[in-house]
């Protein structure tokens, strides 16, 4: 309730008083208060330091997009020498884990049970087919279509093994043959870990910036301490900066720790500069923290804040950022939505700085996009748009920012 003629507003500021000026000492006190509160909270430390390490280890070792040692069966029905040599060619490759059999029924049941991803049949008349030549197939390849990528790999690789073995049987390569020597830029070994770990850092930063900020502010509303902060002489800028700065620092420290794990533990090269990595992380924290504040304005309890942060922050960063799934292969409407996901730009920049180096042509558009999305989150309209704002209106704007239900009417 506001009283005229020298009364006080509901926030504890005298009516008609001048708006409080920015005070570095008050800001330092608020930052110190938030920092101590964060350091004394075990859940905050778990989310900021333990969870990132666990996620990085999972994505580095438990999650792999590399297809190696695929379990298949090789049914050798022909007793001929050529059939035995072809079976040995399948066993010699490091990409297949071969189980030999003499009857299709021995491996067919194992494919149904999921123990094998397919099998290759060398038929009884293999020698006759080989001698006859022509375009008739030499072997039969049966794969498990419930996993399309693995099925395609087994079929294509089996065909390659047969062709390579047949060329070896024919003797020297013909003079007109063309030999291709592929070269893979940025990731010559084609190890998925070198692509997954930089993307996992973006997931970690999203959790720290969005989920942690939303949970902390919602917890203050639950405990009733937000009203006490509003009753202090601190200005709106001081309150917002005091809330965000400690978690910004937590995010940057977590980025350094994650980068150290990536380079020294997971053997991911950092071909760019550390300064570029920190700049990208600092700019990404702007939309992440802003989204956390926006979520806290919609939810006043931690459970609801966590659910909103999960569906609006973590899942889009995981599914729509290009971290696991190629954006170009998504339907057009989904591709359009990805332009609104800050993690899309951060994942692209992280992969560039780790695997390629400091490439401004990639960094500058990504930095501008992340800064623009962050500005929308932080400058979300939260109050009346009069030209002159009284102290009460500033306080009411902050109340609307954190919880519309608490805004004075």
How far apart are the termini? 10 Å
Q: Helix/strand-derived class?
A: mainly alpha
Please, what is the oligomeric state? Answer: single chain
Helix content: 55-70%
Q: What fraction of residues sit in β-strands?
A: 5-15%
Physical arrangement of strands within the biggest beta sheet = 2-1-3-4
Given the C-alpha coordinates, what overall shape results? elongated
- What's the Cα radius of gyration? 30 Å
The total strand number stands at 4
- Biggest beta sheet attributes: 4 strands, mixed
Instruction: Indicate the low-confidence ranges by residue numbers.
Output: 1-17, 381-395, 404-409
Structural domain count? 2
Mean pLDDT: 80
Please provide a brief summary of the model.
With 409 residues, this protein is mainly alpha-helical. The protein contains 15 helices and four strands. α2 runs antiparallel to α7, α9 packs across α10 and α10 runs parallel beside α14.
Helices and strands, with pairings:
Layout: H1 24-39, H2 42-62, E1 70-76, H3 81-92, E2 96-101, H4 104-112, E3 118-122, H5 126-132, E4 140-143, H6 148-170, H7 193-223, H8 226-230, H9 236-264, H10 274-296, H11 302-319, H12 332-338, H13 342-356, H14 360-378, H15 391-402
Parallel strand pairs: 1-2, 1-3
Antiparallel strand pairs: 3-4
What does this structure look like?
With 409 residues, this protein is mainly alpha-helical. The chain has two domains: 256 residues, no CATH class; 101 residues, abc type-2 transporter like domain (abc type-2 transporter like fold). It has 15 helices and four strands. A four-stranded mixed β-sheet has the order 2-1-3-4, sandwiched between helices. Helix 3 links the parallel strand 1 and strand 2. Helix 2 packs parallel to helix 9, helix 10 packs antiparallel against helix 13 and helix 10 runs parallel beside helix 14.
């Amino acid at each position: 309730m506001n009283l005229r003629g020298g009364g006080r507003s509901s926030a504890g500021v005298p009516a008609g008083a001048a708006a409080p000026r920015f005070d570095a000492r008050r800001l330092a006190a608020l930052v110190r208060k938030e920092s101590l509160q964060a350091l004394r909270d075990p859940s905050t430390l778990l989310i900021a330091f333990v969870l990132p390490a666990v996620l990085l280890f999972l994505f580095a070792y438990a999650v792999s997009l590399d297809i190696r040692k695929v379990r298949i069966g090789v049914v050798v029905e022909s007793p001929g020498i050529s059939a035995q040599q072809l079976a040995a060619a399948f066993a010699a490759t490091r990409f297949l884990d071969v189980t030999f059999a003499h009857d299709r029924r021995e491996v067919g049941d194992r494919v149904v049970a999921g123990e094998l991803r397919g099998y290759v049949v060398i038929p009884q008349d293999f020698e006759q087919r080989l001698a006859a030549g022509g375009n008739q197939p030499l072997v039969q390849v049966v794969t498990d279509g419930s996993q399309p990528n693995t099925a395609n790999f087994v079929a294509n690789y089996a065909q390659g093994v047969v062709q390579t073995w047949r060329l070896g049987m024919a003797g020297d390569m013909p003079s007109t043959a063309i030999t291709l020597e592929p070269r893979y830029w940025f990731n010559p070994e084609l190890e998925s870990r070198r692509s997954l770990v930089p993307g996992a850092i973006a997931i970690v930063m999203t959790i720290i910036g969005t989920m942690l900020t939303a949970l902390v502010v919602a917890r203050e509303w639950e405990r009733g301490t937000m009203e006490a902060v509003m009753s202090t002489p601190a200005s709106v800028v001081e309150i917002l900066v005091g809330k965000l700065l400690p978690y910004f620092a937590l995010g940057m420290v977590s980025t350094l720790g994650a980068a150290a794990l990536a380079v020294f533990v997971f053997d991911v090269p950092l071909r760019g500069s550390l300064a570029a990595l920190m700049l990208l992380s600092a700019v990404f924290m702007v939309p992440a923290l802003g989204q956390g504040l926006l979520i806290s304005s919609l939810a006043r309890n931690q459970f609801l804040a966590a659910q909103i942060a999960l569906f609006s922050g973590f899942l889009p960063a995981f599914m729509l950022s290009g971290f696991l799934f190629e954006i170009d292969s998504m339907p057009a409407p989904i591709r359009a939505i990805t332009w609104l996901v800050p993690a899309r730009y951060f994942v692209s920049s992280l992969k560039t700085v780790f695997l390629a180096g400091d490439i401004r042509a990639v960094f500058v558009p990504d930095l501008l996009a992340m800064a623009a999305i962050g500005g929308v989150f932080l400058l979300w309209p939260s109050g009346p748009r009069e030209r002159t704002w009284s102290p009460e209106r500033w306080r009411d704007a902050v109340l609307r920012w954190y919880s519309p239900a608490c805004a004075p009417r």
